[in-house]
User: Fold this.
Amino acid sequence: MSGLTDPAILGAPERDEGGRSLWADARRRFVRNRAAMAGLVVLLLIALFAFGGGLLARHDPATVNFTLIGVNAYKGVPSLETGYYFGTDAEGRDLYARTVQGTRLSLLIGLVGSLVAVVVGTLYGAVSGYLGGRADGAMMRLVDILLSIPFMFVLILLLVMFGRSLLVMFVGIGLTSWLSMARIARGQTLSIKGKEFVEAAVATGVRPSRIVLRHVVPNLAGVVVVYATLLVPEMILYESFISWLGLGVQEPNTSLGALISAGSKQILGQYTEPWQLWFPLGIFVAMLFSLYFVGDGLRDALDPKDR
Amino acid sequence: MLSFVIRRLLVAIPTMIVLVVVSYVLMFAAPGGPFNSEKPLPPAVMANVEARYGLDRPYVVQIATYVWNIVARWDFGPSFKYRDQTVSGLIAQGFPVTLTYGFWAFVVAVAAGVSLGVAAAVRQNSWLDYGAVGFAIGSSVLPNFVLAPILVLVFTLWLDWLPAGGWYGGEARYVVLPVIALATSYLAAIARITRSSMLEVLNSGFIRTARAKGLPMRLIVWRHALKPALLPVLSYLGPAFVAMITGSVVIDMFFSTGGIGQSFVNSALNRDYSVMMGVTILVGALTIAFNLVVDVLYAWIDPKIRY
Assistant:
């Protein structure tokens, strides 16, 4: 347990200590968790698909094949010969290329959302927790206020007023994602603050800003990593939800939510082109599943008290 | 206790003001007002229109009037898009619908979720437990916008048991699918939380004492374990409520139930700002009120909380 309170090990995991560090322990635990490892493999495959799958596409995602309109149901079927691996969508575009595009967007949204949460949320929470007293009260009150605003509605308001661009989406998602992270980081900071090494740093006259950055934040890493992984699927769901409503990204750009929306309309309307739902939905579900398993595995590996 | 309630109210009011001001400021910061169209209006006409909606006065006066009208007369102003409709009229139309299926979904999620979680914890590592855990994981990756089309596919297109949408004054067969689609993922989350907190409680000392003196399991669970085990569930109800309100937008859009979410999305597509703002503020007020109730309940049930 002494590894837990030693900032040197947590702060610089790459240094070879000779013994087993907390991170090496965590890695061993993670590798032994079969569900988490399977999730990681699936996730890597999906990332490969999202960022490299375009190389295999034989059609441009935005090009409409007019010869398919009206005969989509039997000419646009998924096939290796025509190069439409996932078939075509209702407009006669290559669904494979569009799914690659949508998956990429979903992953990016998830990454940006959790990145903002990690940077802003951790710093905010650490500062608030470290300062304590009035400042802490005021800073956390602000978080409470923002948390009780139904952000999905505000995000849609933002998107409608400032145009449905990716930038607005990223800003809006970034605005919300850091809030609960700040709370978690603050709670953790409160317990770190009382530890001896912080006391030692204060006693030797280290500046507060340096204590927060060098001694508190590295010790938050475990909790932050776990929570950030669990935040990724949440952000992806957010974006898909908005795109599903038709208020998210605009054509010709697309996202998994928009594709699922189009696919489910097709399947409930005519049921002649079911692949339009099953392919995007399959990737979406696989992605969320693997993210949850990886997040769970990380929590088991990094949070020693939760075993 | 009373002072705790009053203190919580004192937080709730600034939250509400922040929400109103933010949405109002957003509206003015937005490029392009509600009356901009492809063919610009002559300046004189524009001035008339703005005077009609009170948009020519200073912002502070506008916000104050807006808030005063809501508080004093439940008047959210006219719709910017449809001259014969007021925002409060639209809310009065859609809100009872949302409330009806939202209420049932909430009841189903809490009742079934808690029972499932308790049963799974009491019979840990049985098929029931594995089933509950599997269900919980499965439905966390099936958000309601994915679940809804699948439900319609199965229960309407394949089995032909229930209608695919519509409301018809809340006739029972029209309510079933929206309730299931809205409740499932929260049901699963509540079951998961109940299970883990119940397991923790069942392993604690006072339960061992109760078993040692020979109380039957049923009594132990009912009398001793249930109340402490439900505390984490109670604190999840706040976020669950917010998520359900957001989810109701999907339900309204997918099942055409005519609830409040439908007018929100339609107004978003039409850039009808006043309707969007009205719904956002109403939803925010509901959320804040609900969180207040949950907090008070929590303080009432948990004797450890000091207020």
